[in-house]
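Quiz preparation item.
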């Protein structure tokens, strides 16, 4: 403030009179400067949440609010939004793009989920699909499997092609890690999932196959598509140029994101504002069982 710059040369009362401000108002302003800005503690907490993990800078207002609640804050979402907007801490979103192509001639399983991607318990419903990333060694194809109950990534496989063994391996890894049986496994109608090889594999398990209804778009498996969109927003766009990275390095990045960050630390607003493994832990605790979820 102008007055503070010249207090050694001119009297405060004289400068206040010249500038048309009261002496009391000037000293009140000085006192206010000694106080921390409003919401300073909240801003520091939000910045701490964003800074504690490589991918947290993509958190929007909802997940930031969820993270604060998990830390014991009692605060309205609107206050979190105002602080984030004022400090330019809000992330932008992109739209998902489908990859697999429907095999119009192949046998189509019934759509057992019929758009209902919710589950009352773990190991009841699973969804899967394929996405890709460019690398300096060629395209990397990624096939994760997610549990509809808590969005936990229960299995994943990656390869330089998107042939049927890719999706067989991802489902096999999920079954092996989590002892899955008597569950529904839902995908789109991509040729990998309608192939004889895949149908023979799934017939050897107790899993029931489900696929998007005939004539549906890629959004018949919309939840999986949204997971891929989140992954690319948070782990890839404006962060890594995977086309300049080796395929092995990109594989490591993908595995670290899904099996480490996504499962154990990433706040998921859609499942109650917590990481998938925390929702699973609370479920088993509520069942009074000694059975614990695997931490990937």
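Solution:
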């Amino acid at each position: 403030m102008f007055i503070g710059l010249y207090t050694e040369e001119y009297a405060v009362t004289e400068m206040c009179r010249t500038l048309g401000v009261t002496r009391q108002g000037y000293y009140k302003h000085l006192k206010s400067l000694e106080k921390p800005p409003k919401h300073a503690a909240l801003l520091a907490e939000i910045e701490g949440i964003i800074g504690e993990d490589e991918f947290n800078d993509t958190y929007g207002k909802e997940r930031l609010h969820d993270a604060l609640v998990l830390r014991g804050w009692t605060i309205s979402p609107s206050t979190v939004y105002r602080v984030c907007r004022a400090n330019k801490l809000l992330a932008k979103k992109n739209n998902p793009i489908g990859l697999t192509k429907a095999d119009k001639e192949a046998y189509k399983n019934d759509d057992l989920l019929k758009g209902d991607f919710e589950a009352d318990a773990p190991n009841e419903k699973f969804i899967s699909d394929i996405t890709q990333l460019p690398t300096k060694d060629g395209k990397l194809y990624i096939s994760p499997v997610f549990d509809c109950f808590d969005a936990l990534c229960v299995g994943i496989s990656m390869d330089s092609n998107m042939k049927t063994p890719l999706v067989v391996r991802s489902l096999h890894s999920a079954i092996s890690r989590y002892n899955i049986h008597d569950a529904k496994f839902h995908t789109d109608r991509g040729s990998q999932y309608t192939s004889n090889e895949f149908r023979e594999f799934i017939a050897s398990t107790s899993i029931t196959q489900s696929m998007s209804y005939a004539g549906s778009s890629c959004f018949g498996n919309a939840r999986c598509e949204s997971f891929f969109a989140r992954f690319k927003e948070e782990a890839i766009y404006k962060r890594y140029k995977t086309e300049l990275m080796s395929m092995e390095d990109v594989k490591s990045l993908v595995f670290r994101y899904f099996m480490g960050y996504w499962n154990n630390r990433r706040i998921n607003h859609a499942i109650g504002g917590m990481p998938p493994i925390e929702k699973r832990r609370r479920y088993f605790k509520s069942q009074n069982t000694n059975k614990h979820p695997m931490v990937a």
